[in-house]
Write a structure and sequence with these properties.
alpha+beta; six-stranded mixed sheet; 6 helices; 18 strands; globular
């Protein structure tokens, strides 16, 4: 791991096209992780569903293992230790009950220990029309807590994919001190084409944080099509690096002091005011209390 400064590091995003074979997906991920390190990365992030892209419930349950003794997780902790990097597995399915899974992210330290775990909070239960629908809550249990990982260069806020659509989560992470916010994803092509860039830029600008979003890309073995276009975005909303649709590694140099500069220019994280939402000319009580 290089030592540029106490606040600066090189971030890499690994874009994948994961399939239905865990062993092959892990091998592909490790190969791309090694490429990222060879190109100078200190921190490497993989996308959501790094180890398996599977829509069939029976096969998903049969293929998924608990965290303890998980061969895929062991391969990733070994990779982090061998290459002496901070490795962020964007998510992988882990069994947490007989018929329940967690969509769990892991932040692994350069010594191979697990520094942080985050279970995806918001479940992707949607009907996009045209026969394309998803019910994540049928298999996964939602995480209970927002999580921040401590990196040598600052605090890293963890989110996963559909969490992107909930700005309050990102704001809470930023207000708790996160300078870098992650959005590993398996964004559908349909929603990605419409919303991916706009939402990621908005989260960066709203929080004054770097956004690091590794995505799956292309048509997968299970027939699902994901958007790709993994992005690294500055606190000012500038795109620093972007992938296409195919598997790839993108990199950008990140400096936490720039977050401080942007937040001083636009200190909106300190300008919250409590308010009620009232229907004009109505005798009904206030509908919402917020800030």
């Amino acid at each position: 791991m290089s030592s540029r400064s106490k606040t600066a590091f090189r971030a890499a995003l690994v874009q994948m096209r994961a399939g239905r074979n865990i062993e092959r997906n892990v091998a592909d991920a490790v190969s791309l992780i090694n490429e990222a390190v060879d190109r100078g990365a200190d921190y490497v992030q993989t996308p959501e569903c790094t180890t398996l892209m599977e829509l069939d419930q029976a096969r998903l349950m049969a293929e998924t293992r608990p965290e303890d003794g998980n061969v895929a997780l062991a391969a990733f902790t070994d990779a982090a230790r061998k290459r002496k990097i901070w490795l962020h597995i964007g998510s992988m399915a882990v069994k947490v009950g007989d018929r329940r899974l967690a969509n769990r992210a892991y932040v692994i330290a350069p010594d191979g220990t697990i520094s942080a775990r985050y279970d995806k909070i918001h479940m992707f239960d949607v009907d996009l029309g045209g026969g394309e629908s998803y019910s994540e809550s049928a298999n996964y249990q939602a995480g209970p807590s927002a999580i921040i990982a401590e990196l040598p260069w600052g605090l890293l806020g963890l989110t996963i994919c559909y969490d992107l659509r909930f700005p309050a989560l990102h704001r809470a992470l930023a207000k708790a001190g996160a300078k870098f916010i992650t959005v590993p994803a398996a964004f559908t092509r349909t929603t990605g084409e419409a919303h991916w860039h706009t939402l990621l830029k908005a989260r960066a600008i709203e929080t004054g944080a770097y956004i690091l979003a590794a995505d799956q890309g292309g048509r997968h073995e299970n027939g699902r099509e994901t958007f790709g276009h993994s992005l690294i975005i500055s606190p000012w909303g500038e795109v620093l690096a972007e992938a296409g649709v195919d598997p790839a590694v993108i990199l950008a140099d990140i400096d936490g002091t720039y977050v401080d500069q942007v937040r001083r220019k636009i200190p909106s994280l300190t300008h919250d005011r409590e308010f009620d939402v009232v229907v004009a000319n109505s005798k009904a009580p206030s509908l919402v209390h917020g800030s």
